[in-house]
Amino acid sequence: MASRNVFAVARELGLWDGKTEFSFWRAYSGPNYEGDMKNYAIRELFILQQIAPSLNLNKDMDELPLSVKPDRKLSVKDVSNLLGSYYEGTENDLTQLMRVPKKGRKLFSKEKWEDKDSIVSSFANPWMRFDEISAYYAMTGDERFDWVRTVAVPQCAYSTVIQARRWLPDAIGGVCWMSLDNPGQSPRFPIFAGCTELPSMLKICGQHRYREDCLLWHLRRTNKLAAVRWGICRKTLEPARDRFMDKGLREMPFVEQMYREAAKQEPDKTAAMLNDYTADFVGAVVLRWDELYLSYWRKFWAGF
């Protein structure tokens, strides 16, 4: 699918010589995030490696397939985890470079200590800004301190995992597992295809200014505060995030059964039932993230 003049324009602009095999991305896309002439960046390679390791895809390739068949069936949780990834434990995980001596070693000792004598600093977070990365590079001279585009990013507005189950009625067979702000930190909540009304806090845009009547900011303010001392705060934030996913998946059979019963007895009330379930779920998310927000301020009242 392309314009009829896709080849002619490429030749006219000097983007293709007309002799070699035509490649749309080579002609029109330009370099990737890292400035390399490839049809992918680190995040695409990482995800394809995770879902199809048998293909042995690697960073030395200049072209990856547009899509791949996963080596195994993926669950909603699998996809959610991939979208929340920041390459933890891999060579692209910048937090592994921010190390401090283990407890018991003299902090200001002139004796050189190796990685085996150290732990990752609780200040290390995978979503550092350019100026933060530059500061660490200036202090350490470690050339590995370079910006990496993670899958999950702190400036994210929303992230969705779409689940389509054709064996169920359309109203409950289609589920959008949605999160706002950084998907590596925020929980997901289900919105059903049969929903006709969203919670009021989801109707407010929070991209331009802070608003407490907007769901985005109840998540964002907690997430950003947690990132300041990620090594400490992740111990409470990540379990809370994962519990909401487990809760939604665990309750899904109950929602499906309730919908079927309502469809038989009071079909005109099925939409309201789904609307209420999503609203209650979102309400629980707001309550928990507000609790975390206050707990972090209590923890760091004397400073970070």
Characterize the structure shown.
The chain is mainly alpha-helical and 304 residues long. Among the domains are: 94-140, no CATH class; 158-299, no CATH class. Helix content is 41%, strand content 8%. The protein is built from nine helices and five strands, in the order H-H-H-H-E-E-H-E-H-E-E-H-H-H. Strands 3-4-5 form a three-stranded antiparallel β-sheet. It has a two-stranded antiparallel sheet with strand order 1-2. Helix 7 runs parallel beside helix 9 (270-299). It is globular. The model has no long low-confidence stretch (mean pLDDT 91).
Core attributes:
mainly alpha, 5 strands, 304 residues, single chain, globular, 9 helices, three-stranded antiparallel β-sheet, 8% strand
Structural class category: mainly alpha
Shape: globular
Mean pLDDT: 91
Report low-confidence residues grouped into runs of 5 or more: none
Helix share of residues?
40-55%
What proportion strand?
Answer: 5-15%
Q: Give the helices and strands as they follow along the chain.
A: HHHHEEHEHEEHHH
Give the termini separation.
Answer: 54 Å
Largest sheet descriptor: 3 strands, antiparallel
Q: Treating each run of at least 4 consecutive H or I residues as one helix, how many helices?
A: 9
Number of distinct beta strands:
5
Strand order of the largest sheet: 3-4-5
Overview in brief:
Helix content is 41%, strand content 8%.
List the helices and strands and how they pair.
Blueprint: H1 6-12, H2 24-28, H3 42-51, H4 76-83, E1 99-101, E2 118-120, H5 130-140, E3 158-164, H6 170-173, E4 174-180, E5 189-192, H7 215-228, H8 230-265, H9 270-299
Antiparallel strand pairs: 1-2, 3-4, 4-5
